[in-house]
Amino acid sequence: MVMHRSPLGLLALLLLASAPISTRAADCGSTASPKLDWQECSKKNLMLQGSDLEGANLFSTDFSLTDLSGGNFKSANLEKATLVRASLEGSHAEGANFAKVEAYRASFANIAAEGASFAGAELQRANFGGARLSGASFEKAELGRADFDKAVLTGVKFSFANLSRADLSNATFGGPATFERAFMFLTRIEGLDLSAAAGLEQAQIDLACGDASTKLPSGLSTPATWPCPAEHE
């Protein structure tokens, strides 16, 4: 008796035969390596300095208190990762996705993160001292008391960000940055050249802390309340 396969059965066999052989995604116990998958893994309180995690999937990974300094996070996806008190100091993270991370008191000092996204991130009291952040996005980020000492912020987007008490005073703006609707209560902008900044309005400037050397965009004026008194925590 001749057996006839249904058209659907033949199609299924053809699809199986043509499907590429896939490798299993790396699990939470795998060693750090490029393009691994540590999604939603717990990597808390570890010493992972110098790890090469370029292109890795670190979505919602918990790195609380972990030392990731000197690592490679180029093009990695860290969206919704927990980086509370973690250190990425001196790391490379060009084009990385830090959107919606929770990174209270995290250190991004001296990080190279040009073109990275920190959109919607929780970055209160984070340290960005010496960071290279040209073209990065901090749109809708929480940056209360964040420190940008000597950071390069050319082309950075701070639209709708909360910059309350953040310190930008020693940062470098080699070109335009965007501050549309940013909340700038006591934001330190002393000595900055913001003449090319986009989206700044007088109400924001009136809340911020500048001085006689702060350069503002055309049409905005120096508030009579400047300079602000030194702040003591």
From TrEMBL:
The keyword Isomerase does not apply. Residues 1-25 form the signal peptide. InterPro entries: 5peptide_repeat (IPR001646), Pentapeptide-BTB/POZ_domain (IPR051082). It comes from the Bacteria. SUPFAM superfamilies: Pentapeptide repeat-like. Keywords: Signal. It holds the Pfam family Pentapeptide. This is Pentapeptide repeat-containing protein. It comes from Rhizobium croatiense.
